[in-house]
Amino acid sequence: MSILSLAAGATMGAAYLEAKALISEDFLLIRKALQHGIDFVVKNRQGKNNYWYLFEYYALNYPQLTAIIYPRPVTSESRFKTPEEEFIIEKYTYGEVYNTILKYAYVLKEKHGVTPDQVIALNAKNSPEFVFVWFAIWSLGATPAFINYNLTNSSLIHCIKIGEAALMLVDNDAEVRANVEPCIQDISEKGNCTTIFLDKEFQDLVQTSPAYRAPNSDRHPEHQPWDTAILIYTSGTTGLPKPGIMSWRKANLASALYGSSIRLKRGDTVYSAMPLYHSTASVLGLLPCFSRGATYSMGNKFSTRSFWTQVKLTGASHIQYVGETCRYLYNSPKTANERSHKVRVAFGNGMRKDIWAKFKERFNIPAVGEFYASTEGPLGVNNFQTGDYGIGAVGKYGALVSWALKFQSVTAALDPEDENELWRDPKTGLGRKCRPGEPGEFLQLILDPKKAHQTFQGYKNDSNATNKKIVFDLFKKGDAWYRSGDIMKFGEDDLVYFVDRLGDTFRWKSENVSTNEVEEVISQSAGVDQCVVVGVKVPNHEGRAGFAVIALTPEYRAHPEKFNFEELANNLRKNLPKYAIPLFIKFVNAIQTTPNNKIQKKLYRSQVLPKGENEKEVIFWLSNGSYTRLEQNDWDLISSGKSKL
User: Fold this and answer.
1) Which GO-annotated molecular functions does the record name (predicted)?
2) What's the pLDDT tens digit per position in 163-202?
3) Looking at the domain that runs over 504-639, which CATH code has it been given?
4) What residues form DSSP beta bridges with 445?
5) Do 500 and 514 meet the contact criterion of CB atoms below 8 Å apart?
6) 451-464: per-residue pLDDT in tens?
7) This prediction's pTM
8) In whole angstroms, what is the distance from residue 407 CA to residue 409 CA?
9) Percent of the chain beyond pLDDT 90?
10) What span, in angstroms and rounded, lies between the C-alpha atoms of 215 and 220?
């Protein structure tokens, strides 16, 4: 037998084994979906949609299991001899958490008059107290609204008003107090909301209070799966934050199923330093733990320096990431604890393809659970990735689940004249589903267009924003789809890939440019720590030209002359079509991100040529295949159309 035949046989064998493995994953997912689905249907018929009952089951039947681990930072003037000395490890069993929650419930009801019909805002950093207050609100039948503790003034007041919060419970942390205290009067007068600080007096009252378990009738037995469990605000990338409605279906069923997809089981520990006010940490981090008797360990805030120390101290089996978290960790100096841990799975969303395999290798983590979802979106996809297959994808399933997925999740062709709009046939008015490998907007089926709220709950008190997320009569008359606002593509192999956000993509030379794709290529160049790519208007030129904002690694920031522009240009030419290569570049000390480590791309869209807004910036442009400093005479030729871009 020839070597070629052997190689072909080996390839076919590997493909067969891969397909078989994915089918096995499909059966696991289907079995778990049926199990969790039946459990949820039973609870719904019993009038127990509230997640409180699931937590209470474990608290009463397995009170000795550890529910929460918190590495509380030590405040000390003295120097620590080891990284481990920087934290005091607090552990709380399910039984202890349950009893503490009921004490909080007593104080909230008896001292502050919380009733089942109210919305209660929670404005706090990560700590066990966040969880105690959150579940105390649920136990009383009220609705928690999670506030980004970085907000102040008009944004904070807006969140309180639109969420209709009757009470705001505020962390006693100095930073949080500083954001809230100047707004208290306006919150009261404009928002009709009382502000209560979770200070020593409040905590002392909790400690001396009796436990109070509200009757089941207070927890809305009439609630349906689509009713509101939590209000979680969007990041406000397109205006002021919007209160996204997190339904009981997602809080119960989706969180439990997601826990199964990342192989989370009783006895495991999830470590997350992501903020609990965000659904990634709260709904896809903590709730999957509490739905199976696992442990949730929270970091007070994300720190590359102490991350692996906290992972080691908590004995985490799973770690959670968002956005640029993994890049921050990979680009940080080596630490003693970065491989001395028990982590089996890193899960989250935003793992870039260029860092994926290197992250697993350096930190000795066998599996990555990359997902795609949004706070308000009805569905998500997940890629439990081991080995080499599936790197870079947000969704990976076998033939069975992939077939089923296509009935409820599709990509729709975009209008070539306006990438923010869906294409429709001029004659029929109908849209078109994308071909394999073709990027388009990711849509999710709304089962009953006349009762769209049962699939997509939208935003509280913002019907305009809610309605904008639904498109009707797209593929046939009478259908309805949820618009994600994200560009995705289904590969030939049924892998699902995130491409870009609508609005981040721009057109140049009559072609759509994916900023995400360009950023991944730039990030491969030596010395690049982070980058953001946007499109900028250039006088006398159609479309938008690529503009890359680059932050260098500390070594290259100290010696910027080491940065190799020629290598960057060659790398871009090698990996991108000509129209996608950025024509302009500038360097900054750091790329600004949200507290959840997501890049704030909107801050970089208004670049001013040729010298920046302050007329002092140094900007480089692609001239004759090389990046050179953009001078005024260059810009005059470009803006007049005399210099061809």
Assistant:
1) ATP binding; long-chain fatty acid transmembrane transporter activity; long-chain fatty acid-CoA ligase activity
2) 999 999 999 999 999 999 999 999 999 999 999 999 999 9
3) 3.30.300.30
4) 481
5) yes
6) 999 999 999 999 99
7) 0.82
8) 6
9) 71
10) 10
In Å, how far are 186, 199, 227 from 183, measured between CA atoms? Answer: 5, 18, 31
Check if the beta carbon of residue 289 is closer than 8 Å to that of residue 63: no
Retrieve residue 420's tokens: 């923010």
Which residues are CB-contacts of 599 (< 8 A; sequence separation ≥ 6)? 323, 324, 530, 532, 591, 592, 593
Helix (H) / strand (E) element for 135: namely: helix 128-139
Eight-state DSSP code of residue 380 = -
Structure-token pair, residue 346: 């890193």
Q: Which two tokens stand for residue 463?
A: 């019907």
- Distance (Å, whole) CA 290 – CA 570: 50
- Range(s) within the chain of domains with CATH label 3.30.300.30: 504-639
If DSSP states are collapsed to H, E and C, what string results for 17-28? Answer: HHHHHHHHHHHH
DSSP string, 58-113: HHHH-TTSEEEEEEEEP--SSPPSSGGGGEEEEEEEHHHHHHHHHHHHHIIIIIT-
Beta bridge partners of 535: 546
The beta strands (E) that lie in 373-513 are given as 381-386, 409-412, 414-415, 418-422, 440-445, 470-472, 480-490, 496-501, 506-508, 511-513
> Three-class SS of residue 356?
helix
Q: Hey, what are 569's tokens? A: 């240009």
Q: Token digits for 34?
A: 């049926």
**CATH 2.30.38.10 domain residues, the chain:** 400-500
Q: How many residues does the chain have?
A: 645
CB-based burial label for 140 (10 Å; 0-12, 13-18, 19+): buried
DSSP per residue, 285-335: IIHHHHTTT-EEEE-SS--TTTHHHHHHHHT-SEEEEETTHHHHHHHSPP-
CATH 3.40.50.12780 in the chain is located at 21-397
DSSP string computed for 216-260? GGGG-TT--TTSEEEEEE---TTSS--EEEEEHHIIIIIHHHHHH
Question: What's the Cα-to-Cα distance from 597 to each of 202, 273, 280, 532, 535, rounded to whole Å?
Answer: 32, 11, 12, 14, 22
N-to-C CA span, the chain: 55
What does the block give as tokens for 190?
A: 């404009």
Q: Would strands 87-93 and 367-372 be described as parallel, antiparallel, or unpaired? A: unpaired
Side-chain-side CA neighbours of residue 67 (13 Å): 26
Q: What is the Cα 301 distance to its own chain's centre?
A: 16
Q: Which amino acid is present at 89?
A: I
Superfamily (CATH H level) for 400-500: Luciferase; Domain 3 (2.30.38.10)
423, 401, 422: which is closest to 484 by C-alpha?
422
Contacts of 137 by beta carbon, 8 Å cutoff, 6+ apart: 108, 114, 120, 122, 143, 144
DSSP state of 74: P
pLDDT in tens, 111-145: 999 999 999 999 999 999 999 999 999 999 999 99
Sort strands 584-588 and 619-623 into parallel, antiparallel or unpaired: antiparallel
For residue 547, the 8-state DSSP code is: E
Report CA 596 to chain centroid distance, whole Å: 8
* 10 Cβ contact partners less than 8 Å away, ≥ 6 residues apart: none
For the chain, residues with pLDDT lower than 50 are: 1-17, 237-238
Neighbours of 45 (CB within 10 A): 9
- CB within 8 Å of 34: residues ≥ 6 apart: none
- What type of residue is 275? P
DSSP states of 203-220 as a string?
HHHHHTSPP----GGGG-
CA dihedral (105, 130, 287, 274) in degrees, to 10, reads 170
Angle at 29 between CA 24 and CA 32, to 5 degrees: 125
Domain 21-397 grouped into CATH 3.20.20.190: no
Q: Which two tokens stand for residue 443?
A: 């849509």
